[in-house]
Amino acid sequence: MIGAELLSALLLSSGAAPPPESAAVTARFAQLTIRESVIIRVPTRGRQAIAPIEWKEGKGPKCLPMSEVAGATAVEEDSVDIILRGGGRVRAEFEDECPALDYYNGFYIRPTEDRRICAGRDSIHARSGGECQIRRFRTLTPVEGKKK
Hints:
Elements lengths: L1 H13 L25 E6 L7 E7 L3 E3 L3 E8 L2 E6 L4 E6 L11 E4 L6 E3 L4 E4 L4 E17 L1
């Protein structure tokens, strides 16, 4: 009856009346199987009216760790800038135009076993249902003292 004593002690410490001596404490157990696919939603910021920064593109990585993605911003209909934790920025260029990304202001990336987003392999899924194949990544660095 350790369970009943523990329940009584918890109820007394909370100010509630103890259960009657005849009350039995029962535990119920259930098994739950979860079958779902995990989808990472990446919020985007639309094209901004403030003075844009001019970016210099460089050779990008083949893959990005999903854990490094902090957000994204829609740049053109054929690319999205992915903002990384720590402030870095990488441009994901698509095989074709992807105008659906701006419509719902966000997109999804389906995680892979290796937890990376890879050019030539993975796609970005628009919330409207469209899919945009990633052609390549380009590393972005701001051009000092220049605005577009």
